[in-house]
Design goal:
By secondary structure, this protein is α/β, with parallel strands linked by helices. It has helices at 16-29, 50-64, 73-77, 81-88, 97-116, 127-139, 154-158, 171-180, 197-211, 215-229, 254-268; strands spanning 7-11, 36-43, 67-72, 120-122, 162-163, 239-240, 247-248. It is built from eleven helices and seven strands. The strands form two sheets. The protein has a five-stranded parallel sheet with strand order 3-2-1-4-5, sandwiched between helices. Strand 2, helix 2 (50-64) and strand 3 (67-72) form a beta-alpha-beta unit. It is globular. The structure holds iron/sulfur cluster and zinc ion (ZN). Iron/sulfur cluster (SF4) binds at residues 44, 81, 97-98, 101-102, 190, 192-193, 196. Zinc ion (ZN) binds next to helix 11.
C-alpha cells in the first residue's frame, strides 16, 4: 500500500478506527525515516458529536507529535452538516444527511491532503465497512462501483491514491485493540447515522456473523473476487468543474451540484 518515502495523510475522525490506525501507522512509520505522517480531521459541523471526536483527535496527535490539519465544512462550503440536515428535512425525495456528508467530506479530505502535499490518503475503513458498502452497492443497483479503478485511468491519476490498511480487520477487533492499548475514543453514535440504510445493513451483517461465525470474511473474499471480475465502466475523460475547477466527469461536479441544490432549497424555505 505504501512506498518508503510516502507522505501519508491519515483521515482522522477521532473514532476508534481512525485513532487505532493513527497509532499503528505511527509505530510502523518510525522504521521508515523517509516517510512522513500527517493527520487530517474534517469537522462536518455536527453539534455534540464531532466536537468530542475532534478533541480526541487533537490530543492523540499532540501526544504522538503528528502534524494535524483540521478543515471544516463551514470554512470550505459555508454550511455545516446540521444546517444541511435542517434544509433537507421533510423535502420529498431528498438524499439523507449521510449522502451529503460523504461527498463533501471526500472533497474536504482531498483539499487538505493536497495542501499537505500528501502522496497517499489512508482511511480507517474496516472489514465491516467494506462488506456493508458491497451490500449497499448491490441494493442500489450500483454493482459497477465494485470494480477496481485501473491505476492508469484519468480518474485515478487526478486524485491522491487512497489506501485502507484496516480493511481486512473486523470492527470488533479494532475496538478491542483500542481498549487494550488504552486509546480513548468517542463512543457516541452520529445523530444522523440511524437515518442511513447502512445502519440496517450493519445490523443484518452482525446478526449473520453471530449465527454463522466467519461469514463476514466469506463475504469479504467474494468482494475481492468480484473486484477482479467486474470490468470498470469506461468513463468519459476527466474534465474540470466549471464552478470550482476540481476534476469532474461532468461539466459541474457533484459537490457544486449539491451546494447549488441546498442554496435553492434554502431560498424556498
Ligand atoms: Fe456523516 Fe452520516 Fe457518518 Fe454522521 S453517520 S458522520 S452524517 S456519514
Ligand atoms: Zn465543482
Amino acid at each position: 500500500m505504501f512506498n518508503p518515502d510516502d507522505r501519508i495523510a491519515i483521515a482522522l475522525s477521532g473514532g476508534k478506527d481512525s485513532l487505532t490506525l493513527l497509532h499503528i501507522m505511527h509505530k510502523i512509520e518510525r522504521d521508515f525515516p523517509k516517510a512522513e505522517l500527517y493527520a487530517i480531521t474534517v469537522d462536518e459541523g455536527i453539534k455534540g458529536y464531532r466536537d468530542e471526536a475532534l478533541e480526541n483527535a487533537v490530543k492523540a496527535c499532540e501526544k504522538l507529535e503528528i502534524k494535524h490539519l483540521v478543515v471544516s465544512f463551514k470554512e470550505l462550503f459555508d454550511i455545516t452538516l446540521d444546517e444541511i440536515a435542517e434544509t433537507i428535512k421533510g423535502v420529498e425525495g431528498e438524499l439523507t444527511p449521510c449522502s451529503y456528508c460523504g461527498v463533501l467530506r471526500r472533497r474536504a479530505l482531498n483539499i487538505a491532503a493536497k495542501e499537505l502535499g500528501a502522496t497517499k490518503i489512508a482511511t480507517a475503513h474496516s472489514l465491516d465497512d467494506e462488506i456493508q458498502t458491497l451490500i449497499l452497492n448491490i441494493i442500489h443497483g450500483d454493482v459497477l462501483k465494485i470494480a477496481r479503478l485501473p491505476q492508469d485511468s484519468p480518474e485515478a491519476k487526478n486524485f491522491i491514491p487512497r489506501v485502507k490498511p484496516l480493511r481486512e480487520i473486523p470492527e470488533a477487533e479494532i475496538a478491542f485493540y483500542a481498549y487494550l492499548t488504552g486509546i480513548s475514543f468517542q463512543s457516541r453514535v452520529c445523530p444522523y447515522a440511524p437515518q442511513a440504510l447502512r445502519s440496517e445493513v450493519r445490523f443484518f451483517l452482525n446478526q449473520l456473523e453471530e449465527n454463522h461465525p466467519g461469514i463476514k470474511y466469506t463475504i469479504y473474499h467474494s468482494l475481492e473476487k468480484l473486484k477482479s471480475l467486474i470490468q470498470p465502466p469506461s468513463k468519459p475523460e476527466i474534465t474540470f468543474c466549471r464552478i470550482c475547477g476540481e476534476p469532474a466527469s461532468k461539466p459541474i461536479c457533484e459537490v457544486c451540484n449539491m451546494l447549488d441544490r441546498l442554496k435553492k432549497l434554502k431560498s424556498q424555505s
